[in-house]
Amino acid sequence: MDPGELNEQTRRRAGGAQIIPRPEIWAPGAESPWRPLHDPARTLSTDEVLAGVARAGRTRPFDPPPGSRPSAVLIALIDGDQGAEVLLTRRAWHLTNHKGEVSFPGGRMDPGETPIETALREAHEEVSLDPSLVEVGGELDHLRTVVSASYIVPVVARLSDRPDLRAGTDEVERILFVPLAELARADTHREEHWGVAPDVWPIHFFELDDETIWGATARMLTQLLTLSYGV
Description:
Elements: H1 3-9, E1 26-28, H2 46-55, E2 69-80, E3 83-91, E4 102-103, E5 106-108, H3 115-127, E6 134-139, E7 143-144, E8 150-159, E9 172-179, H4 180-183, E10 189-196, E11 199-207, E12 212-214, H5 215-228
Parallel strand pairs: 2-8
Antiparallel strand pairs: 1-10, 2-3, 2-5, 3-4, 3-9, 6-8, 7-8, 10-11, 11-12
């Protein structure tokens, strides 16, 4: 076994100061789906990631349930020194909802918008991303959130050039590109099961050296990596 892989298996990364509302009853979850295929010496390219997304189908039926809030996020990828990187933001700590959480650029759909139009608009508003740099490659599974009653369409895309980004709103405190190779590390992803049967929820976490990604964003990243590795 590679010494680097052994080191990953015997420690956890520090994570960040994110507030995790973990219930009293929880248990460790399943192993990362890509764990048997992950090689620390190998990186994923945006071509491989988008090919995995395409194999799963480019679009899903847009069918928000009654009472939900249609939303879209942009999962923007670009090739870097460590392979494909994904664009993420950290929400400001002064916010009332989801304070300090790491998320994709995105938000509520305006009347008459498509999910792609929403994702591009929100990315431009939040991090000043030029829509002309974005090449849409497909979608991940649409998700529903319990607390905010959101119906989220994850739009996966590739950036044609590394953009000069800046926060376009005081809701964004940090902008970061994270290599998928970092997220796939054995010491980074884990799953927890929250609640008591039959109401048990799988919750995903990616603990970096200075941030913890969890919730809906981590769930989308888990599917993205699973598809990328062809699991």
